[in-house]
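Reading a protein record of the kind used here takes little practice once its layout is understood. Each number in the token line that follows is a code from a learned vocabulary of backbone shapes. One such record is shown here in full, so that the layout can be seen directly:
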Amino acid sequence: MRKLTPEEIAALERTGTTADNWSKIDVAEDFRPEQLRRCRLGGTVVIGSGATIVDAAVSDYRIGPRSRIEAVGLLQCRTRSAFGNGTPVATINENGGRTVPICDALSAQAAYLMALWRHRPQLVAALEAMVADVAEARTDTIGTIGADCTITGARLIREMRIGDRVAIEGASLLENGTLCDDVRIGIDVRATDFIAAERARIGGGTTLERCFAGESCILDKGFTATDSLFFANSHCENGEASAVFAGPYTVSHHKSTLLIAGFFSFFNAGSASNQSNHLFKSGAVHQAVHARGCKFASGAYIMAPAVEGPFTMVMGHHSHHHDTSALPYSYLLERKERSYLLPGANLTSCGTVRDIEKWPARDRRTVQRDVISFEEHNPYTAGAMLRAVDTLHTLEEQAPGSEEYSHNGVRIAATALQRGLTLYNRAIVASLGAMLERGASTERYDGGGRWIDAAGQFIAKSAAERIAERIETGELKTLGEVDNAFRCFDVHYDDYARSWAEQAYAAVLGHYPSAEEVREAIEAGANARAAMRRTTDADRQRDFSPEMAVGYGIDCDTEEERLRDFCNVRGEA
């Protein structure tokens, strides 16, 4: 970099460019005066090779090579800033009991430990210190714009750290934040105290305050969020979020939808779905947990506190503070102002299969800081189904011959209980077979015991606890090292999952399975998966039946024409 020559300063002034102090303007060796036109420069400004500034006011910023700034009201760094790094986000609990400080190196797994492992304060403090280290390393008195960026039509940009290949078009306000590489910011966006990770898309009048938008997230069409974390591939439009931990693939598309004070993951919110997080007694202190794969139908409502098990479909209003965590793949329905559960019913739905198959196909990430497990048959859901079978048998034993059972705020009809047992047992066989078929049988990778879903990653709880211990003792000193520890488990996931399946199968047999018994379990699993697929395919066929052709072929004269219109629009079943 070099200073401007007197001739260059004179040429700049002739084209309408001014500076508070020309001696504070540094340019690349190949700088040409035509790179700046009608600009107002204040404080320290560093202009990279090939960068252009047109009709803009810039104060205390470094402009990277080949970046273009045009028609920007004010690009300014007024004070020493960490650019959003270290901002506390009161996720899940609006009163701040689960606050997560954000930074541009934050992963879903590190945030999960900070938010949900509050029973280990030393762990949380160590992770918060790692975030503080990142914030200190990013702190500067001069803002940064990376290489090959385009910023046009923005009104006000203050205290921003902007990576490479970022495009900002028509933003209203960006303040105290970081935009990582390849981020896109659209018209009328207002965002303060925030981080947008790689390839995030924020547009269409979205408003963010104290938020983290993870890798390849899309927040658009007037979406509003405060104190919320959105991790990889989440896609939210139109609605509102407050104090939300949105794990990967959290989706909300409707104007009338509110996500508040809860943990979500691989979640889909129907129109007008809503939660309330306080009972007008102690304030906004309650929270809800909606495990992986939960869906809210249109108009669904839940009064926190409440918990649903993985892959639960929620329909209707529920205000009895249910806990169905022990009964995954269920339908939660409202009947006569009560909550009724159909255990395992979602195992027969083609929608569940579609969801599981579509998530990896829609993975837009390149950096992949968040570890995401896509396996359909895994120890987390299989273990939940084993516990579900125990739970249902216990209900039967406690009230033999009953027509209806009560469990943690929900009611279960006897017929639904029996069907749930059948569905769970078949799915357990399918999952055990699938896991035994993959991975190697080795004592090195012990996956026994309970597994958890750590914001998108299936991991043995014992392994997560070992990572926590390494953080607490100082063995893991940076967020990158923490992420690598989670990633190391993921690399050997199949071996850990097989270990879990072997131990679960041994518990059923009463002895460790022989090679022949493992082969039999693998074959039984394949048969069970085929039977399950026939069930979900039949469900799909029903969705393509003539009865579903209502509204098709409205000008057709024959049933054949109407069905042809239906098939041409919907595709073949």
Observations:
- The first strand starts at residue 2 and ends at 3.
